[in-house]
Design brief:
The chain is α/β, with parallel strands linked by helices. The chain is 39% helix and 17% strand. The chain has two domains: 176 residues, Dna Topoisomerase Vi A Subunit, Chain: A, domain 2 (3-Layer(aba) Sandwich); 69 residues, Arc Repressor Mutant, subunit A, CATH 1.10.10.
Length: 271
């Protein structure tokens, strides 16, 4: 069995669940890119793939994760997955996703390449489903890594094959999303992804910035805590840079020293 998730944190918790339950035994593969943000035009072509990689290179500049750019090769991951499925006719894939745009966009990107293996691709979409947290209270997780490992054992009962109809309809929906090529994608419900303008998260960023200079790390932490719909810290810092470039914000510090040296304040504070 091959399990696929879309964040390293999800991989960690699923591997803990596998250690508890022999029927889940198998390898866990992580699709590392966050397809909920950034350009998607011609994503399966060399030109589109390179354009996306170049965008991530700019977004990751000066971040603590800059070295990760060379570690993300989802095309190679899928190539190796397909090769394994071709060589082992009995192998089966389980795609795990939570109710968030990151996972659902990753699902669309991946499953659109696996139609030849219909019947062997299972999906476990944990949307609008209750689980018990560490205190024994019921909650509705957005991300897989919010779920306790032992709860995954119950969740395995939700596995179902991706239908032939889905293999026809979902890639077309994904193609439409890619052609629209918005830089932000939002999950409205179910598997419905809608494109949003690049400034979609700006109001949350700006609500945490005032006349007093603050460390950018504090701004990002506060923004993520207040946002009802999450995105990555790299995207938020990229947006802060973009807002500063159009004089909406003021940035102080040396980017070459990394995020820890950067302070940000509202533009009105310097007028």
């Amino acid at each position: 069995m091959i399990h696929i998730v879309f964040e390293e944190a999800n991989k960690t918790v699923l591997e803990q669940a596998i250690a508890m339950e022999a029927t889940l035994a198998g390898t866990v593969i992580c699709i590392k890119d966050d397809y909920a943000v950034g350009p998607l035009g011609a994503i399966y072509e060399t030109e589109g793939y390179q354009a996306r990689k170049d965008w991530w290179k700019r977004a990751l500049e000066h971040s603590p994760y800059i070295q990760q750019l060379d570690l993300v090769d989802d095309k190679l991951t899928v190539h190796q997955l397909i090769k394994q499925l071709e060589e082992d006719g009995a192998s089966e894939v389980w795609i795990w996703m939570g109710q968030n745009a990151h996972d659902v966009c990753g699902y669309y990107w991946l499953m659109s390449q696996l139609k030849d293996f219909a019947g062997r691709i299972q999906v476990l979409y944990l949307n609008n489903l209750p689980f018990f947290n560490e205190k024994g209270n019921i909650f509705y997780p957005t991300y897989l890594h919010e779920i306790q490992p032992k709860e995954f054992i119950k969740a395995k009962k939700l596995a179902r094959p991706i239908t032939l109809s889905e293999f026809e309809v979902d890639p077309d929906e994904w193609k439409k999303i890619c052609n629209e090529n918005n830089l932000v994608r939002y999950l409205e419900g179910g598997k419905k992804i809608v494109g949003k303008d690049v400034d979609f998260y700006d109001k949350y960023i700006l609500s945490q910035i005032n006349a007093e200079p603050q460390k950018i790390t504090k701004v990002i932490s506060n923004t993520l805590n207040k946002m009802p719909v999450k995105t990555g810290d790299v995207f938020l810092v990229w947006r802060i840079k973009e807002l500063a470039a159009i004089n909406r914000l003021v940035i102080q510090g040396d980017w070459e020293k990394g995020w820890k040296d950067i302070h940000v304040q509202s533009q009105t504070a310097t007028n």
